[in-house]
Amino acid sequence: MRTRSDPRITHLVRRTSLVLVGGACLFAAASANASIEYRVSIDKSAGELRVAACADRDYARLELRAQDGANGYLLGFSRSDGGAVARSGDRLLARAVPDGACVNYRIAAARATRSNGRDEGMQTADGSWIVSPGVWLWRADEAGVLRLDLPAGMRASLPWRPRDASRTTYVLEAGGGDWPAWAAFGNVDERIVAGGDGTELRIAVVDAPSRQRADDLHGWLREVANATLTAYRRFPVRSAQVLVIEIGSNSSSPVPWGQTTRGAGVAVELFVRRDASLKELRADWTAIHEFSHFFHPYLGNSGRWLSEGLASYYQNVLRARAGIVSEAYAWERLDAGFGRGRNSATGVSLADISRAPRRRHSRQSGGWPVMRIYWGGAAFWLEADIALHRERGIGLEDVLAAYSQCCLPEAGRVDPDAFIARLDALSQSTVFSRLARQHSTAAHFPSLQSSYATLGLRVESDRAVLSSDADAVALRNKIMGERIAPTAFGAR
Ligand SMILES: [Zn+2]
Asked: Ligand 1 centre from 308 Cα, in Å?
């Protein structure tokens, strides 16, 4: 499977207490109460990452924890005040830590990058380190700040939100367990794409072989990020990390693998074929698909048809709006997807598929009938979008914009029914619950005939034929019509 958005949920359940708290409140709380500062430095020649976790008040008991297996990379630990530190599994425990004292520890970061393909780290072509924070940041559950002190010539991309424009201090939310996520150190070219209301994507290209290649990759992703902004002109997340890593691959896709992780805020990793041309990258849908996952909360396996459906719908809609592809082409791609969904898992409803353990569908790709889930979900969002325009005079993006303002958590799972109920409430309609019930309980892929008729859309021999009926044209324009490019937004 080329993409996935499901993080390992065991690491997220601990963070569910954050779900109902707005992002702005969290930010304020983190700043006001930050009581541990993690000072991070690197000894590149030793392959070591060093952390001093320093208290700014007295602690009777200070526990720092890391992800499973992290103790295999822990080289040593001590206290600046000479007190005792004990390790138990993937936890460090210190008692009676006075204000100003630090727990110091050293991590074999270079070795963690050689665990390629596992949960700890990845090694890149030019020797940059990509290491899971769960390996190198043994931290307390409470909020804190992380301060970077890198050697000359080394730069970083971290999954946390920078505290200020200097981008050397990052905000650690309460809850701990900042994984799955990735931190990159080394030849890292991070550039910011700004959206409205202070939102941003921190796009980091790791180990680009040349300045020209870095410029090309950044140009491509700025275009994709701006396409995301055609929904409601700001990003659904305050500050998200996007990591771009080049790989050698025989895949026919220019982006053989992309994923969204939600361990330390929402982040996207894109693995780009080293020899992929800019033209191939601009034609590919993986990046806009992953960025579209910013619009919804983590919905778990039972909500996967909603999350993958939204990303599959928007990967076409947003590219058409940005003028990256034509409207007709976007309809053709949607129609082709619906065709694949229609031929997958016939006789079984999305609700059944979502309830069933994955192994029951083990003959399907990834253990699940992926095409039915992705395109069955996309059909739901298309019909919801049409219904909103007809019944409420608003678009799906208006409802998602309102959702992002009031309710969208960056961590923690949201129950799919609660998500749908909230979208109903925000749209002052029953569009979402009504259509979700229809789409999730039908044993076959829905006939979209009446929606196609409303849109004035036919597809003949894989080519979209669009009617010139005024109502149909107006509706199609509201969904797919090219938006004025958000020129106010760009690289900062
Ligand atoms: Zn996806």
From this structure: 5
Give the distance (Å) from ligand 1 centre to CA of residue 457.
26
Other beta carbons less than 10 A from residue 89's beta carbon: 11
Burial of 450 (0-12, 13-18, 19+ CB in 10 A): exposed
Cα of 260 to ligand 1 centre, how many Å?
Answer: 8
Q: What are the residue ranges spanned by the domains of the chain?
A: 3-36+118-294, 297-480
Domain 297-480: state its class: mainly alpha
CA of 29 to the centre of ligand 1 (A): 32
Cα–ligand 1 centroid distance for 106 (angstroms)? 36
The domain made up of 3-36+118-294 has a fold known as Zincin-like (3.30.2010)
What's the 427 CA to ligand 1 centre distance in angstroms?
A: 25
Ligand 1 centroid distance, CA of 101 (Å): 44
Name residues whose C-beta falls within 8 Å of residue 277's C-beta, 6 or more positions apart in sequence.
254
pLDDT digits (tens, 9 = 90+) for 146-167: 999 999 999 999 999 999 988 9
At position 471, the amino acid (one-letter code) is D
- For 339, list phi and psi in degrees, rounded to 5: -60, -40
Distance, CA 483 to ligand 1 centroid (Å)?
24
pLDDT at residue 127, as a whole number: 87
CA of 298 to the centre of ligand 1 (A): 11
Interval 360-408: pLDDT, tens: 444 444 456 899 999 999 999 999 999 999 999 999 999 999 999 999 9
